[in-house]
Amino acid sequence: MPQFETEFFSSQIFWTLISFIVLFMALSRWVLPRIAAILQERTRLIEMEIAEAHRKREEMESLKSEYATKLSEIDQEAKKMFDESEKRIVEQHNRMMGEWKSEMEHRKREFLEDAEVTRRQAIRDIRNQSADLIITATEQLIHQKVDNSEAQKVLEETIGELEKEGSKRRS
Prior knowledge:
Helix content: over 70%
Mean pLDDT: 86
Largest sheet: none
Shape: rod-shaped
Strand content: under 5%
């Protein structure tokens, strides 16, 4: 094998060095600058993307903070509206209950007045009927006429006595 023969070592080393230097010069002049430019461009793009990501992250944090603030404001406003609504409902309930109570009191008074008027009318009717019955009975007993004023007087006395007896019994 010729590469292992010592007489060719010096020429092989010479041409290897020349080939290496030419290849190194060609690579360093044309290929390596292109690779370095591509790497620099890639580094620049990656740095820009990282900066953009940081900017978007800060923007998102700002939006998140604004969203949280608006959400808390909306929550407070909703609570305020709920409280106002509840207050209006309670006020309306109280007002309606007051109206209802006053209406019931008015009806109660009317009922009691009507009952009193009816009671008085019933008492008057009973007295009149009693007076007529007493007059008729008395006329039949004594076969004579008794005038209304005398009959009314006797009736009032009799009713007064009956009321006294009734109140004594109740006690």
